[in-house]
Amino acid sequence: MDAESVSIWPRMEPFLLGALQVAPSSKLSLHYLRKMALYVRTRDGCFPTLGWPMWRHIACGKLQLPEDLAWLYFETFDLLIGHTPEERLEWAECLSQCSSKSELDQQRSKLSVDTLQFLLFLYIQQLNRVSLRTSLIGEEWPSHRTRSPSPSDREAKTSSQNKNWDDQAHLSFVQSHLAEILELLVEPGQLSQSGQALKDCQITLEAVRSLGLLLEGSACHSRAVQPVHRLLTKVPLHTQAGYSTLSRSFPLHKLLSCLQHSLTLNPFGITACLRSGKKLAWAQQVDGAMKRAKIARNTHMAPLGSKIVLMSQVFKQTLAKTSDKLTGSNIKIHRCSDAFIYLLSPLRSVSVDKCRDSTVVLGPVETSVHIHSCQNVRVVCVAGRVAIGASSCCTIHALTPTRPLLLPGNTDITLGPFHTFYPSLEDHMASVGLAVVPNAWDQPLLLGTEGLVNPSLNTSSSPDPTCYRLLPPTEFNTLVVPFEMEGDTCEVPGGLPPQYQAALNEKRKRIQNWQKTVIEARLNKEQKRQFKELVEVKFHEWLLETGHRHELDSLVPPTVASVKDLDVPAASTARVNDTKHTRTGRTLGQSPMAC
């Protein structure tokens, strides 16, 4: 076996889930990251692990980032790295017991991250930068007087061309910046005062181990994926990479050459999924509506963390699925319109991209749900994080322990509480480590080029602080998931916020009063028939006017079956008929997806 048989590629998850989908602050340029790399290696309590208090000191005191933004980066990295569901639930329990900021800070102080991996994580925030030119070097650390680039045009371009799913962009980024990435791993004694690596410097094996955040590979076309440091210390790459068993280190120039020679496109990325992934079979659709749809997956071959399901161009159709094929997958829902999509399994991440006039109901999402360039889309989810960018007229009903991110380009975004359930929802939440508290759905962060947005200092390159609203309780209704499944969940996990529950109770009271009025009217048989016909006519007129008639009709499956473990959308005919009957009995002002 020779070195030509070894392939190394960029891991998908750091770029997909770790790189915030906005051009980064200039204060995270290579110049300042080099200074940070020097600083953490020469200060107590910063290396090999970096705790929240020291990162806050560096971010706020040295880089002069807002504390909320410093926490956002720290929290995002912590969300990306591997924690067991039990550890996440335990952390959620600790946070839920904090009643003050001091108690919250005390809990956060218990968190620490791998210092070198965190440096690499901060570096890949450059992925969505239009130009990778660094800021002018003229000071030790940024100052309040440091002028940032004025990137209004670049920001608009960046928001429409994010590269988080683009494995070609991941490879190009690593190939172009591998030398700078490796320099961040070099020990201080082998760096110049500017932070650049000296000639013939060495990189330790432990530092290369941290490189496993970004790179992995396999030998001899094997599907057994290995961390990059294992490939570099074994035959045949150990000689080419210059690994010394005595010093347990690599010469920088040899390591760089070896990695550049071995780098290739991720065999489990979106490109490979489109080229050779398996199709997901769904129920036969009426009117040929699914002929244009492209639904593919690589879940039959990809390792954990690289599973992809792509759904593109689903048009005027209801699709539903719960299956092991979805569990732990990264889902991309792309260019769908007039669609109703139910993915009721524990998921790794979800991206809803360039969709319009659609409803997406998700099972618990371990990491992030990102809505990008969408119009008139409703997303219902329990997720580790929710981010919305360059979208308009969208409604997000979320249960999330982190503050929703509003990126540049949004208009008319509505945030509402999570308002549905299905029988196995709580079991799925536990399997990915998501709890009902804390829940920050109504506390969004507005993120612009140079950090968080101050509503009084809005600029053309930052999100408009008036771009969102919280859903008024008077407009609130719950949502029915109209499929038969097994499980014990019979209500919205954690319940509804008091003001929304009160509004719902008031609506139910009005319905009861209306029903009582009808009973007390003592209509004769003919009057009851006429009244019933009138209500049904008006209701069906409303269904046609709003387009919800298609939604209800599409729920009737070709065969009666359970949705569980099928590749096709299926619902109980009895349940659908019951749902239609229940909705017909409601006031005409309610949504047909509400109960």
Give an overview in words.
With 595 residues, the protein is an alpha/beta fold. The chain has 19 helices and 23 strands. The strands form 4 sheets. The chain has a 16-stranded mixed β-sheet that branches. It has a 3-stranded antiparallel β-sheet with strand order 1-5-6. Strands 2-3 form a two-stranded antiparallel ribbon. It is elongated. The relative contact order is 0.10.
Q: What fraction strand?
A: 15-25%
Q: How large is the count of helical segments?
A: 19
Low-confidence stretches: 132-138, 146-160, 283-288, 455-461, 559-595
Computed Rg: 26 Å
- Oligomeric nature of the chains: single chain
Proportion of helical residues: 25-40%
Judged by helices, strands and strand pairing, the structural class is alpha/beta
- The counted number of beta strands is 23
- In round numbers, the mean pLDDT is 84
Largest sheet: 16 strands, mixed
In whole angstroms, the N-to-C terminal distance is 64 Å
Which word captures the global form?
A: elongated
